[in-house]
Amino acid sequence: MAAPRAGPGDAAAAALDELSRNLSYWAPGAGNGSLSGEWYRRNQIHLFGALLAILGNLVISISLNIQKYSHVQLAQREPPRPYFKSVLWWAGALLMAVGETGNFAAYGFAPVTLVAPLGCLSVTGSAIISVMFLKENLRASDILGMTLAIAGAYLLVNFAPNITQTVSARRVQYYFVGWQFLIYVIFEILIFCILLYFHKRKGMKHIVILLTLVALLASLTVISVKAVSGMITFSVMDKMQLTYPIFYVMFIIMIASCVFQVKFLNQATKLYTMTTVVPVNHIFFTTSAIIAGIVFYQEFFGAAFLTIFIYLFGCFLSFLGVFLVTRNREKEHLQQSFIDFGNIPGKQMLDKIQPDSNGLSYGTLPDGSDSTKSQSGEKKEV
């Protein structure tokens, strides 16, 4: 007698039952994408990489606030001192290097699709520390954004690909010449060249164009960073991999992509406020990194649809959290200064002259004309 076929209702019930087992802490069973006991034991290296990424991002948050505090202190001194002569600024720079090293090492233990989205903790952590360290205001949107980012990070750790693959030189070579990656690189180069043409030849400097260029380079960065970090980790724990040419190819790609990535990111920060650049860049960078991890390292290969859906929902929560934390933050600190000329008998003049936001001195009128001299050498009248 033939066994009855499982209907759609049975499949849905089985998926929900699997999900409930996944979310049962220390419950017996294999689990998948959870903190169950068996999953914990099988993914200790995976969790160690996640812990390195979290700690690295928190250290970066501390370093940013220390450097910001040193700039505030130096600005209050007479005469002003350059920032590179401040011990406090160098302490922040040292912590920044430590945090970035932690992030770099994390790629050697955890998947790209987990380490990259955890960058949201750097932004939210900086907001928390700035409240305590720099006495900045804590807004309701900050609390909501931090809560969403932490919830998103929890889902990411639980439902990111729990494969722990050793990154050897031979494996990287195999992925490097695979048809998936070759098609991906050709497609990416075409988009990059088109955007670069509009940026350089047509003079288009929209934030989407600039940060898309950054994101395209970032995809190569995360691929090469994981390859270099993974091969170093494999060399320390098992067998030397640094004698293979692919290690140095990936190292060169990592350095070159980082340099050009910083170049385009600096252009974006010069043209737009940080409250605009930070959330958009986080979303673009994370999306690009996730796609690179899926294409090159095949990190979601064989994953269940429900696991992928909850993982993407965790990414969405982290994106929303970063947006809420950074929203309108600079506007609270920027007080538009002006010089009050008062009333001059017999003459009607602009009574308030704003400082030039793009220059180093006061005296620029709203239309960009010279406020100090006219053709006759006197002040201009309206």
Could you explain the architecture of this structure?
This protein has 382 residues and is mainly α. It has 3 domains: 26-165 and 304-335, no CATH class; 166-296; 338-382, no CATH class. It is built from 13 helices and 2 strands. It has helices at 8-22, 37-42, 44-75, 87-106, 112-115, 120-133, 140-159, 169-176, 179-200, 207-237, 245-271, 274-296, 305-326; strands at 339-340, 352-353. A two-stranded antiparallel ribbon has the order 1-2. It is globular. It starts with 7 loop residues before the first helix and ends in a 29-residue tail after the last strand. The model is unreliable at 19-35 and 332-382 (pLDDT under 50). This is NIPA like domain containing 2. The chain crosses the membrane at residues 45-66, 87-109, 115-134, 143-161, 181-198, 210-234, 246-265, 277-297, 303-325. GO terms for molecular function: magnesium ion transmembrane transporter activity. It is found in: Membrane.
